[in-house]
Design brief:
two-stranded antiparallel sheet, mainly alpha, 94 residues
Length: 94
């Protein structure tokens, strides 16, 4: 199961959060400005979809927020990676 009710909200299984983090890392390492010109049809949303495949069952509002955050981490050199990792792992069960 990808998610589990915990208290008042839904959290990700730790293995799911770790898999999402690994996919974000791959996408961020392979992203570069102009990638869509070198790979016609490519969009950051393609990578975000790939990452979010692992997060089935998240509340739609929470999923929307994470889609935005993932896109920012993939495409922005200025993104705070430490904060992103901490926030993602905070969704994981302990």
């Amino acid at each position: 199961m990808n998610t589990q009710s915990k208290g008042a909200g839904i959290v990700l299984d730790r293995s799911v959060a770790e898999a999402m983090l690994a996919r974000v890392a791959v996408a961020a390492f392979t992203y570069y400005p102009g990638k869509s010109e070198d790979e016609p049809g490519y969009t950051v949303d393609e990578d975000v979809d790939w990452v979010m495949e692992r997060a089935g069952g998240l509340d739609p509002a929470l999923a929307g927020e994470w889609r935005r955050r993932i896109a920012d981490v993939i495409s922005s050199q200025d993104a705070d990676h430490r904060e992103f990792v901490a926030s993602l792992m905070a969704l994981a069960e302990e």
